[in-house]
Design brief:
This protein has 1 helix and 5 strands; from the N terminus they run αβββββ. About 15% of the residues are buried.
């Protein structure tokens, strides 16, 4: 099914309020400003800073 495009437009990184980008496989939302990745479970973004993981 995938995440709703309108939802993606209004979501922001909970840490820096920067823009989030969905990965190609749809499993993560990534913030390029603070280099954190937030997982997506069953099309529901988990936007908890404590559960975010850094990426390179």
């Amino acid at each position: 099914m995938g995440m709703d495009k309108e939802l993606l437009e209004i979501l922001a990184c909970p840490k820096c309020k920067g823009e989030l980008q969905l990965t190609v496989d749809g499993s993560e939302l990534r913030c390029f400003a603070c280099r954190l990745s937030y997982r997506v479970d069953d099309d529901i973004p988990i936007l908890l800073i404590d559960e975010a993981t850094p990426y390179e």
